[in-house]
Target: NAD-dependent protein deacylase sirtuin-6
Amino acid sequence: MSANYAAGLSPYPDKGKCGLPENFDPPEELERKVLELAEMIRNARNVVFHTGAGISTSVGIPDFRGPNGVWTMEEKGLAPRFDTTFEEARPSRTHLALLALQRSGSLKYLVSQNVDGLHMRSGFPRDLLSELHGNMFVEECIKCGKQYVRDAVVGTMGLKPTGRLCDVPKSRGLRACRGKLRDTILDWEDSLPDRDLNRADEACRSADLAVTLGTSLQIKPSGNLPLLTKRNGGRLAIVNLQPTKHDKHADLRIHGYVDDVMTKLMKHLGLEIPEWEGPVVRDSSEVVPETVKREAKTETKPQPVTPKPEPRCHQNGTRHDNGEKTVEQEEARGAFPSPESADTKQDCQPASKRAKLEPLVA
Model:
């Protein structure tokens, strides 16, 4: 559960703006905005979606900063309410709608801050998905990089050893790799995974439309990735009940429950939301998904991890300021690194990939 996930993180002094009031568009305005979003998607050639904890609240996993979020309740001295476990949670209508959008070719890439594994378990292809903060069901070998997908949460957080060993056989029939396995869940100061961050960065720079669902965009660098699309002349649509850090940059803001918005959107696009038939893992968009087997050594066979160039630099640290900034000002302060500076090692220290929180501008 997200409550247990939050409890497993290291203490952190500033968790951002929690418990902000939610806004709801009137029914007529909501219909108009969803129709506009449908037109934006039809007219776009490359659409990237970004998801946060708000897309899983309808299935019983609480978010963090909503009115009943984990950290909001913590600030009030109350215990958060949860209605399910990560293993028992089923993908929401939003998860399944995103799967249908990918299958139709309307969605080119998906970037998620969620660790609940529901995108993966819905059957969304992992080669088109960046899970920037990890996945509760995935552990990986620290020696060869192989990832294993389990049918239950792996049991540790913060990139710690899980107590299991890699069984990948070495070449020419030699003994198995035997590298230690660790979880993939990031703590506050952990660096984002190179492969996922680099793929997300590239996808956002290539997109002409970014759509964010259920995220306040407060965590860096994840929350700043949609602005890379804006920087390159693309458009930005934000779907969230609470204010987000980048509302001022949005071409369209929709205030409504994400499940309702996505259901209406799919009708406008003439697409059906598929039924969920149980956990599946789909490594590639080129293959048919396979049902997750309930065995101790259930695993995926992801693309081999290849050496990556030094990742593009992202602004690091927590910032408090007032007033609005333009995209150009955001770029000037480092939210959008230039290609020249991004490729220089001295300007892109490992800390730039760390998951950091940047509060909403008041």
